[in-house]
Amino acid sequence: MNLEDIFFPFLFLWSTIAVLVFIALFYKNAPYGRYFTLDSNYKIPSRIGWIIMESPTIIGMLIFIVLFRNKIGQTEIIFCLLWLSHYIHRTMIWPFRAQLKGKSMAVGVVSMALFFNSVNISLQCIWIFIFGNYSDDWLISIPFIFGIILFFSGMVINIKSDDILIKLRKNNGEGYYSPQGFLYRYISCPNYFGEIIEWLGWAILTLSPSGLVFFIWTFANLVPRARSNHNWSKSNIPNYPKNRKAIFPYIY
After folding, report:
1. Cα 247 from Cα 252, distance rounded (Å)
2. Is the predicted pLDDT of residue 42 greater than 70, yes or no?
3. Half-sphere exposure of residue 125, counting CA atoms within 13 Å on the CB side?
4. SS3 at position 47
5. What pLDDT sits at residue 6?
6. Could you give the 3-state DSSP secondary structure of residue 229?
7. Where are the domains of the chain?
8. Which pLDDT belongs to residue 39?
9. In the predicted model, is pLDDT for residue 34 greater than 70?
10. pLDDT band for position 30 (50/70/90)?
11. Measured between alpha carbons, how far is 46 from 62 in angstroms, rounded to an integer?
12. CA–CA separation, 20 vs 240, rounded Å?
């Protein structure tokens, strides 16, 4: 049995698990952020937990770059730079900007995210470095151009939305408040909305089954969480705007 015989059935299985997680998250919130219970016996500081669980996304990519350094072309290098542009920010910059001091994260959540990120980076790299076949002309193809526009649009939305939340807590102290401006005029979770757009862009610009499966997982994780956050905010934040949707403007 070769790698191809394992890879594609596993992608199907991994996608099926994402659908099951999507359904489950409508009934039970993942225990982090506002849903973390302080009485947990197994917890670590949120900043450390975040760095640990996101680290495979950088380490794994760098390992594959080293292993395949003599075989990769210009297009694969651009893919790697795009990936790292997101995850270096997410792993090494955002945790030090966000108001995480004194907050904790369940070890179980860190472990699950660590496992997911390890699997995901492996799937992305196996396609990019082994199964994918990209010429330099791919960089001027319609899928790449359209995908990279979506990718950076989503990244900008994600970072700008997070910045608004960071400044809100910095100015008002601990707790949850109603953010204003930008896409918060329309939805409660534009940071999640931006990330969904970003990884849709990745799936298109790589035109890969691995990228599609990652988009499915992103959607499956963030849409139910956005719904939970939206409903929680309407119930717990005074004068929370009733006309906002959860994650998709005017739709949901």
Report:
1. 6
2. yes
3. 23
4. helix
5. 95
6. helix
7. 15-236
8. 53
9. no
10. low
11. 25
12. 31
Q: Which helix (H) or strand (E) holds 60?
A: helix 56-67
Token code pair at residue 107: 């070890």
pLDDT tens across 183-205, in order? 999 999 999 999 999 999 999 99
Report which of 226, 196, 218 is spatially closest to residue 26, judged by C-alpha positions.
226
Backbone phi and psi for residue 103, each to the nearest 5 degrees, phi listed first: -95, 155
Question: What is the C-alpha to C-alpha distance for residues 4 and 240, in angstroms, rounded to an integer?
Answer: 51
Distance of alpha carbon 49 from alpha carbon 51, whole angstroms: 6
Helix (H, G, I), strand (E, B) or coil at 160: helix
Give the separation between CA 240 and CA 236, rounded to whole angstroms: 8
- Do 178 and 240 contact (CB within 8 A), yes or no? yes
Question: At 212, is the pLDDT very low, low, confident or very high (cuts 50, 70, 90)?
Answer: very high
Eight-class DSSP state of 90:
I
Query: Coil, strand or helix: which one is 105?
Result: strand
Its pTM stands at 0.93
Both tokens assigned to 240: 């929370």
Those residues whose C-beta lies under 8 Å from the C-beta of residue 242, and which sit 6 or more positions away, are 234
Whole-angstrom Cα distance, residue 84 to residue 56? 11
Strands (E), 39-81: 43-45
Report, as an integer, the average pLDDT of 149-177. 90
